Amino acid sequence: MTDDTQAAPTDLVILGGGSGGYAAALRAAELDLSVVLIERDKLGGTCLHYGCIPTKALLHAAEVADSAREGEQFGVKTSLHGIDMTGVNSYKDGVTARLYKGLQGLVKSRKITYVEGDGRLVSPTAVEVDGRRYEGRHILLATGSYARTLPGLDIDGQRIITSDHALRLERVPESVVILGGGVIGCEFASVWRSFGAEVTIVEALPHLVPLEEESSSKLLERAFRKRGIKYELGVKFTGAEHAEHGVKVSLDSGKTIEAELLLVAVGRGPTSANLGYEEAGVAMERGFVTTDEYCRTNVETISAVGDLIPTLQLAHVGFAEGILVAERLAGLPVVPIDYFGVPRITYSEPEVASVGMTRAQAEQAGHEVVEMTYDLAGNGKSQILRTAGSVKLIAAKDGPVLGVHMVGSRVGELIAEAQLICNWEALPGEVAALIHPHPTMSEAVGEAHLALAGKPLHAHG
Ligand SMILES: Cc1cc2nc3c(=O)[nH]c(=O)nc-3n(C[C@H](O)[C@H](O)[C@H](O)COP(=O)(O)OP(=O)(O)OC[C@H]3O[C@@H](n4cnc5c(N)ncnc54)[C@H](O)[C@@H]3O)c2cc1C
Predict the structure, then answer these.
(1) Which of 169, 213, 347, 360 could cross-link with 405 by S-S, CB 3.0 to 4.6 Å?
(2) Is the CB–ligand 1 distance for residue 18 below 6 Å?
(3) Residue 114 pairs with which residues in a beta bridge?
(4) Short-list 65, 89, 69, CA closest to 79
(5) Radius of gyration of the chain from its Cα atoms, rounded to whole angstroms
(6) Is residue 19 within 6 Å of ligand 1 at its C-beta?
């Protein structure tokens, strides 16, 4: 890696080396643009170091713990002797370290100038790092996001924590209250329950994973209840104070819950304060940088991508936006991203996966909607795995599939097919004609389409 002051302006100066920033850097370099990539922490950003990858490693360790605990169900004599968090963390950190090394190698091999340090936008065409100025014909803002909290709720990193602290915990807490029943809250609830903790989720909206189709939320709630994960829905948090052995959390229902830890998972805010954005004239809304569908800000020389802009806060969205910007700047033809076509997964046990529209969104878009729910009870592989859930299809009457919504162990792996179905606007009959391998969970996707096409196979009712 190099840390150079530049003489001539670069084609593209990127502020932030997370999913959005580094994807743009890699693609731009591939297209022969000169690139400076500025990062103050670690190349790879939230996803690699504090998000997707470490949480999924924890979730895998949780699955191994469940398998050990539940072996007898399958006639295998196993038992869970405990969780060694040092071992879990070293496995998790090992995964991140290998990917980090690979990414550093990629950036180096594409001749990207990597600059370590805190950057600040000082003009529509320049970023300053430690007194050095990096001029670019174009600037990409990709400074990502941070874990939000609520007014009056102080994150102390000990008893009241965010996902950043949760990923560094060196013990399994005995009990946790999780504020926020979105993706991050549900994933940590799942991990800690598998590791043996008492978990209560507090969600102000009426359901867990409230952005999902309501039936998916309800299936997740049922599965969590069976796993002993408690939740308080439709109630607001009113305060938290230190108690003798942890925290006492008060709710507007009058209830109080005591736990060793309070995880605050109420969403992520854009990292945009004091970075010179306003001074350069970049339009913003609630701290998010606003862009058009080509990720262009109102300033001609400045684009923005990732969690910093008000699109879906997902790593693969950041990748896609970064690539779009690089290709646009290189003069390639680009098309705007269809955000309904982006797959979304909550990697809890069970998983929740979806792509396309919910029923409400499809109706709001003016479609006459038909739906079909295929229960995993009819799917051989799901029975082998002992998982419950469903594949639900939302389709236009006599038209294409508009949305696929799934719940069950491992359904995240099925979303790639569902994504092709929705994005290629396949008709139910076209998918029904495709043979799915038996016995796999992917058959449930095929069976749901067979049923919607009027020729159900392993489906009751
Ligand atoms: C716990 C958790 C789990 C998640 N799990 C998933 C998942 O499973 N799948 C998924 O798709 N998404 C997941 N996400 C979301 C995903 O991590 C983000 O959507 C993604 O990282 C956004 O990429 P980004 O490039 O916009 O921002 P970031 O990854 O946050 O990168 C921004 C970078 O900019 C740097 N930066 C900021 N300011 C400056 C500055 N002034 N100078 C220099 N550098 C600066 C930061 O250090 C950071 O590295 C998860 C997030 C969390 C928190």
Answers:
(1) 213
(2) yes
(3) 37
(4) 69
(5) 23
(6) yes
Give residue 217's Cα distance to chain centre. Answer: 17
- Exposure b/e, 65-87, CB count within 10 A at least 16 = b: bbeeeeeeeeeeeeebeebebee
Instruction: Give per-residue burial for 26-52: e unless 16+ CB within 10 Å, then b.
Output: bbbbebebbbbbbbeebbbbbbbbbbb
Atom 1 of ligand 1: nearest residue by CA position: 51
How much is the pLDDT for 453? Answer: 96
Helix axes 52-70, 183-194, angle to 10 degrees: 40
Residue type (1 letter), 169: L
Amino acid at 302: I
DSSP 58-89: HHHHHHHHHHHHHGGGGT---------HHHHH
- Give dist(CA 27, CA 306) in Å, integer: 15
Buried b or exposed e, range 98-119, using 16+ CB within 10 angstroms? eebeebeeebeeeebbbbbeeb
CA–centroid distance, 421 to ligand 1, in Å, is 29
Judged against a pLDDT cut of 60, whether residue 328 lies above it is answered with yes
pLDDT at 57: 98
Q: Give residue 283's region: left, alpha or beta (phi > 0; psi -120 to 50).
A: beta
The pLDDT score that the predictor gives to residue 461 is: 65
- For residue 196, give the DSSP letter: T
33 with 41: CB under 8 angstroms? no
Instruction: Output the pTM of the full model.
Output: 0.97
Q: How far is 204 from 236, CA to CA, in rounded Å? A: 5
Q: Tokens 């602290």 belong to which residue?
A: 165
Q: For tokens 């350069």, what's the residue?
A: 280
Residue 2 has pLDDT above 60, yes or no: no
**Closest alpha carbon to 193 in 162, 164, 241, 231:** 231
What share of residues in the chain are helix, strand, coil (percent, to 5)? 35, 25, 40
Amino acid at 292: D
Tell whether the model's pLDDT for residue 152 goes beyond 90: no
| Ligand 1 centroid – CA 307 distance (Å) | 7
Q: Is the CB of 145 within 6 Å of ligand 1? A: yes
Q: Which of 438, 449, 458, 460 is catalytic?
A: 438
Q: Tokens 């095929």 correspond to what residue?
A: 446
At 346-398, the pLDDT tens digits run: 999 999 999 999 999 999 999 999 999 999 999 999 999 999 999 999 999 99
The atom of ligand 1 lying closest to the CA of 44 is 49
Return the structure tokens found at 148: 């939000």
Beta-bridged to residue 104, according to DSSP, are none
Position 396, amino acid: A
